[in-house]
């Protein structure tokens, strides 16, 4: 079996069906999807019980999905669905998203959802438990209304856009990774949050305001931006029927004893997969499934028994699937705790001294370069880095002439913590503001998706704030500093750039916070402090990003196969003038693609623990390639460096299959004749591609090449140059100008 990472390329040609489970169901431990139906299939290849999932799979595969273009079908499993063999859906000229409806009575619609459409069949609104007048608006000439039946089809383009939103806050908190880290879940409705954003009758203001709280309103705003451009059409299937499986016992019995309509591909029967000694004792309107009834066992109308021998109910003893999944996640949670404890051993290499406390109101500002990983990445990832040993060649780089990542901290009179995230370097607009006045406001510091989590963790890891503590926050701040603190952070790089933003930002915050609190920490201490912070934050990750952004110039970082985990950094000396030569031959191409797979790190760690031979051998190759790349840099050999980059990209693809989107592959193919080597930065999957050109100063030439290549989307080309100065720390007055630029830094 081949497991594919979900990328835009997979969505382009695939026909994917997602059957989603609902809440717990009183009448079956395994939920509505696995509720047994009183049906037999004589033509099936093997005799087996028929559950609702079987019925829905048959309906979707052989009836509804037939003839549809590539894309993603989403189908609820909380209803019994009957569809004729030829549903009559036309896909000519289809674009966007399509909902499937079944005709129902206005009376039934009072407790359900209905679609309001225009004359072209485009959905204008979704009405749930509407008034009689609202429901009547939706009625067709025959008096029936189109019921929401839990089925939606997303075209490939729409599915890609929707999937890309799961890395954008606050929608990233909807993923299981967000839940595992303790982030408060955002509960969104497929129909009333996602699908409704495309309804023609909605305005942005009304749609966003309709969110139940601030986080849902923020999520709705993201969904509106991503999906609003897609047309939302409806196909109502004549002669189809839909029966929602309620929690009412009488409704459930009626569903299992009422014969399906003639359009159904199933045939319900009074006794299914059962042996009954005296079937004459079973009244019409009763149902027996998977039972052995011996002797004079009678059953009255309106009675249903399943999985019984005589009158003894053999309740399934196996745990629910959800519990099995949870057990597997507990084992993985235990592994994460062990890794966390191992990485925490690096704390002994964090040494903090004392320095002068800056004046009240004066900003301590830190500006950091981005980093390019030239080889060895993934070998720095725990537990690989301390079980195998790692080596990564990194370069600190300016992007379009500036250091794109930064933070600033100042002391303020109020004994509180003000946390601000800016959209760009100061004085840019704030996109997140948070005030912490009590220690309990910091307790979600270990939940990466919580607002301000990184900044809260930084206060705790630098020990500016003691947490937990019996001493209130304001008392701690006044006793130690006579003030509170205000922190601003920014990055000019797009989300998922692959240039190490989050770890470098953590380093910038800790450097500025140490200095603003009258403390001093070396670069080596900051590298290990960021490892500590990311473990406390529960995001994990390796050490290459902070090495790349906090240590100037070109270097190789190494860690030995041992604990305590210590990162040692060696600057790579290069021939005179070669640093400028390298800058002249390096370019960044923003691919316009967002990495859709967020669990690449988790998959790599799982494969490492499985000791898959391909992963172990590839890890050996990553480390040896890093040493070869370092040697090529010492020699100033551009073609040899390019070979290392190409080899590194192949190694990344072994480590994290699916990290090369099709459009990026086309881009690399178009550039290959003009470059010594190229590689996607970081984990891949999107973000930035860096290229080592054969000729210097090739920005305009590459722009022309890529502009003439079809199917690349919204790419852009950026200049990069090696930053030999490293990150800057400066203490400025109360009113600071725009972010520090190279050559303007005043280190203190």
Report on this model:
- This protein is an alpha+beta fold and 748 residues long.
- It folds into 3 domains: 8-244, no CATH class; 271-314, no CATH class; 336-729, Ribosomal Protein S5, domain 2, CATH 3.30.230.
- It has 23 helices and 34 strands.
- The strands form 10 sheets. Strands 21, 22, 28, 29, 30, 31, 32 and 33 form an 8-stranded antiparallel beta sheet that branches. A 6-stranded mixed beta sheet has the order 25-24-26-23-20-34.
- A hairpin with a 7-residue loop joins strand 31 and strand 32 (688-693).
- Helix 13 (453-461) packs across helix 15, helix 13 (453-461) crosses helix 16 and helix 15 packs across helix 17 (544-550).
- It is elongated and about 95 Å long.
Which secondary structure elements does this structure contain, and how are they paired or packed?
Layout: H1 8-13, E1 15-20, E2 36-37, E3 50-51, H2 52-64, E4 71-76, E5 79-82, E6 97-104, H3 106-109, E7 113-117, E8 123-128, H4 132-137, E9 145-155, H5 156-164, H6 176-180, H7 190-194, H8 204-209, H9 214-227, E10 232-236, E11 241-244, H10 249-257, E12 271-272, E13 275-276, E14 287-289, E15 292-293, E16 304-306, E17 308-309, E18 312-313, H11 321-344, E19 352-354, E20 363-368, E21 370-375, H12 384-387, E22 390-399, E23 405-412, E24 417-422, E25 430-436, H13 453-461, H14 473-480, E26 484-491, H15 501-516, E27 519-521, H16 523-536, H17 544-550, E28 554-559, E29 567-571, H18 578-585, E30 586-590, H19 600-609, H20 613-635, H21 638-655, H22 662-671, E31 675-680, E32 688-693, H23 699-707, E33 716-722, E34 728-732
Parallel strand pairs: 1-4, 6-10, 12-14, 13-15, 14-16, 24-26
Antiparallel strand pairs: 2-3, 4-9, 5-11, 6-9, 7-8, 17-18, 19-27, 20-23, 20-34, 21-22, 22-28, 22-33, 23-26, 24-25, 28-29, 30-32, 30-33, 31-32
Helix pairs in contact: 13-15, 13-16, 15-16, 15-17, 20-21
